[in-house]
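Run log, item B.
One chain of 399 residues. Sequence copied directly from the ordering sheet:
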Amino acid sequence: MIAGEINRPQRGFTKGEFTARCDAAQAVMAAQNLDAMLFASESDIRYFTGFMTQFWQSPTRPWFVVIPREGDPIAIIPTIGVPLMRDCHVGAIHSWASPAVTDDGISLLKSVLDDLLIDHRRLGLLMGRETAFRAPLGDVLDLVDSLAQIELVDVTTDIQLIRMRKSPAEIAKTRYVCQLVSSVFAELPNWAQAGMPLSELFRQFKIRALEAGIDDVSYLVGSAGPGGYFDIIAPPSERPLAHGDIFMLDTGSLWDGYFSDFDRNFAIGSASDDAHQAHHQLYDATEAALAICKPGIRACNLYQAMDAILRPNGDKGGDGGGGDDVGRYGHGMGIQLTEPPSHTNWDTTEIEAGMMLTLEPSLIYGEGFLMVAEENILITDNGYEMLSTRCQRDLPVIT
């Protein structure tokens, strides 16, 4: 399948999309008597304003967006970002020349907050798991000290729940990128072969993904080895693929700011019975999760369904998944490669229609080899929709 055969959605979002997101945050403020919320991470600023740029790769400058109790977001950003921010969903834009010697936007941020934190003197911040505040620690401490008379309220759960509920436009972008990546994986057995260095396999995959219409292959990991692999996050080596190798590629590819996130396993020439059995077991674990996928279950139920297949004898081996200490069997997805919830035994997040999830079981087999499988799905009103093209149960063997 090529990009022209896939229904390509519109790039960007309507103003109504961002208005709905901010309205949801402001409803939380009204319920909790907050005067404002402060965000200082790439994903949250992009989610509420549409400010999308690769300039985040530079760690030099801090960026801030405040959502007031009423009205449009307020940007407090380095001057270099003003032209782009003017095209985003914001009201007032305050800027300073950055990087600065001593005061890199903190006094400007304080001034904006002083004007807003009047009625309730309560400020919402993301403080929990999978959040970040991108600014030097010294500046963060200075800011917190200046807000000593302000009650800082953790709104992590509320904001993460808003972001977990994907809009039709978000779903369309993710569906599209998953279809493109599925087509690239489908063609891989036609060009991957013994003798190809693993680094060249990675390079060719990226080239073919870009040719298919992907905007960026910002995440590509994997491994290969005789009989299996042990590591799933290392950069590729120059070692050539050889007969009897098992290899895996796991990609987070982007289209219009939305990720796919799934992997595929392959064998070169032949595979051991243990490797075939491991692939079957991972497929069956995914099927067990798919069988219960519908609104109303919890993330921990997905973990338990997969774990019952992966460790039927109840050998839990600690808190990790599959006895390999990976820690979870999947997660949410969207404008970040991984988002809440986590499919763990402790995450009780209720699964709702509109959530996009990965199912990612893993196990140890044979001589200590690791194997991981992953699929992307959308939770619908009555069940689920596959976003990635489902892999086959049998381990593909490239001959």
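Observations after the first pass:
- Residues 317-322 have pLDDT under 50 and may be disordered.
- The first helix runs from residue 15 to 32.
Flagged for discussion on Thursday.
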